[in-house]
């Protein structure tokens, strides 16, 4: 079947083709030639190799034979090209159960059955990289930043950022409309010049039009590249269509249209989904209030490793050079926080904003004084699997304001050179001078040893541990205790704890910001400092295993004589445990894990 379709009289035409794929491989050439002929007959939105995905059962065909000869396959698919996906960005494919056929029916939902109401209020401000190609942009930023209105609080950094946001929002909308109109005018002009007689004047006008059009199309390309989050293709190579399609696909993957609650019911409207998100994370970020004795037992064996030279370095005043270096080490187009300004804005206009930003950051780092909104953070939810249904299938990523990230990264850069001296050798991830592949190699060789000695007198086992919501559940009192046991100076601990505990969360869904939450625990995924703080927390687990090894309750494993004896390996928040396969050993491993759980959250 091959048909042209439109949903209403004014709608765009598109093609729908239902094709039964030839199962005989000898006839596949004929099948592909048929598709080629169909493709050449029309330029309307149709089919290419973009799989629209699915919801429902994973397989669409079954041979319905008795086990062990039962076969399930996903043979039926709905595919489209970029033009069709842009026309129907919310399309969903559902696998339906059919009682009459060995194939499942496909239900293609072009528009969601529940129409979400658009969020009220103005659209959230985002600084556009494409604006940098406008000659008026720098002057607009400079005048807005330095506008001397004391009554509006614009002598402080938040006031200056608010002034820039207000001015750029209005100016950006005007520029966007003018750019689209000018592109259309230039395209029409080039068409008319093509059909007129060629003269020296017409050729010159055509060259000028092409040059201006190229510039405007490059701006459009930068706009879509920023949304596609693609860093391996450069703008200027006529990739606008690719970036547009990739941004649209990214939006489809990250969009949330419904959520399954813990009781099995579904939240389907925007209000219900927003309430579900806020309620879930209120629970996740609520402190379990661990007992002081539990924290003491989980941290009592952590050794002091911070020596006087480290203490002196960590306590010295922060400098302008450190702040500047932290900013320019950031990826320019990282997603912005609540202020809408990406690192690119501060990097490009550093000569304008430098004095105010450095003063604000150093005032926090050296004097512990922060301005209002300094640590406000937006949370976006990124799916961890292909078909997410509940909130446990999403990873909360924190979008911090760039000014806070500069401060956080400055602290992280001060701490980073000492991590190799602080973190136990069993941890190989994100420690300067170590490679995560080192632990991968050790784990592979140890597993090989376990398999080859499975029939011997001694039996061994391997436990792979994945801690659920590892970052989100870290108790702040536990983190403070760990840093104190490691020997960090009190002033540095206080600075870190201010960064961690002063956060205020809002959530972003479909471009709408909602909710307000003050957490009681957790480390932010997206904060430059959080990764290193989590590594410090894992020192508690390493110390508990080390004591168990010394006492002989959890013996280590060696693959051969002279090889290093291993009880556990850490890969950031993942852990592998190697030990003898005996009931008593398993019980002691369980005690170690329970002690760590009660202390850390």
Automatic annotation (TrEMBL):
Matches recorded under InterPro entries: DNA/RNA_pol_sf, Endo/exonu/phosph_ase_sf, Retrotransposon-Effector_Assoc, RT_dom
Domain Reverse transcriptase: 363-601
Source domain of life: Eukaryota
Name the record gives this protein: Mitochondrial protein
């Amino acid at each position: 079947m091959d048909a042209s379709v439109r949903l209403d009289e004014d709608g765009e035409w598109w093609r729908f083709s239902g094709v039964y794929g030839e199962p005989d491989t000898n006839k596949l050439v004929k099948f592909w030639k048929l598709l080629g002929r169909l493709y050449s007959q029309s330029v309307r939105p149709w089919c290419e190799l973009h799989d629209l995905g699915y919801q429902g059962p994973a397989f669409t065909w079954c041979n319905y034979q008795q086990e062990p000869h039962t076969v399930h396959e996903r043979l039926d698919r709905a595919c489209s090209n970029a033009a069709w996906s842009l026309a129907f960005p919310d399309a969903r494919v559902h696998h339906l159960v059919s009682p009459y056929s060995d194939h499942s029916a496909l239900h293609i939902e072009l528009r969601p059955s529940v129409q979400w109401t658009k969020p009220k209020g103005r659209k959230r401000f985002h600084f556009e990289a494409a604006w940098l190609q406008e000659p008026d942009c720098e002057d607009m930023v400079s005048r807005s930043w330095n506008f001397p209105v004391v009554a509006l609080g614009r002598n402080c950094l938040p006031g200056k950022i608010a002034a820039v946001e207000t001015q750029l929002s209005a100016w950006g909308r005007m520029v966007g409309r003018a750019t689209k109109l000018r592109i259309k005018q230039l395209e029409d002009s080039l068409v008319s010049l093509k059909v007129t007689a060629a003269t020296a004047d017409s050729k010159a006008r055509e060259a000028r039009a092409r040059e201006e059009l190229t510039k405007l199309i490059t701006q459009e390309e930068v706009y879509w590249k920023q949304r596609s989050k693609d860093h391996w293709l450069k703008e200027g190579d006529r990739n606008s269509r690719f970036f547009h399609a990739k941004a649209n696909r990214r939006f489809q993957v990250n969009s949330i249209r419904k959520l399954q609650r813990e009781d099995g019911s579904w939240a389907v409207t925007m209000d219900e989904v927003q309430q579900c998100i806020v309620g879930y994370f209120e629970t996740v970020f609520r402190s379990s209030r661990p007992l002081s004795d539990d924290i003491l037992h989980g941290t009592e064996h952590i050794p002091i490793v911070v020596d006087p030279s480290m203490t002196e370095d960590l306590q010295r005043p922060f400098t302008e050079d450190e702040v500047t270096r932290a900013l320019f080490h950031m990826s320019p187009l990282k997603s912005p926080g609540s202020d809408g300004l990406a690192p690119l804005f501060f990097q490009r206009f550093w000569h304008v904003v430098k004095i105010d930003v450095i003063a604000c950051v150093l005032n926090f780092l050296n004097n512990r004084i922060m301005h209002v909104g300094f640590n406000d953070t937006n949370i976006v939810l990124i799916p961890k699997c292909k078909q997410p249904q509940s909130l446990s299938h999403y990873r909360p990523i924190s979008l911090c304001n760039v000014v806070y990230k500069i401060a956080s990264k400055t602290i992280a850069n001060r701490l980073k050179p000492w991590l190799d001296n602080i973190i136990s050798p069993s941890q190989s991830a994100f420690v300067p001078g170590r490679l995560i592949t080192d632990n991968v190699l050790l784990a592979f060789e140890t597993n090989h040893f376990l398999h080859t000695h499975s029939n011997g007198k001694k039996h061994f086992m391997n436990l792979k541990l994945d801690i659920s919501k590892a970052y989100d559940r870290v108790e702040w009192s536990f983190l403070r205790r760990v840093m104190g046991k490691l020997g960090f100076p009190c002033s540095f601990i206080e600075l870190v704890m201010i960064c961690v505990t002063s956060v205020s969360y809002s959530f972003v869904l479909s471009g709408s910001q909602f909710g307000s939450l003050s957490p009681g625990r957790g480390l932010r995924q997206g904060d430059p400092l959080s990764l290193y703080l989590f590594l410090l927390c894992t020192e508690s687990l390493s110390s508990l295993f080390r004591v168990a090894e010394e006492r002989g309750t959890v013996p280590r494993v060696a693959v051969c004589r002279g090889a290093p004896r291993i009880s556990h390996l850490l890969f950031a928040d993942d852990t592998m445990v190697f030990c003898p396969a005996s009931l008593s050993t398993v019980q002691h491993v369980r005690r170690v894990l329970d002690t760590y759980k009660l202390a850390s959250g």
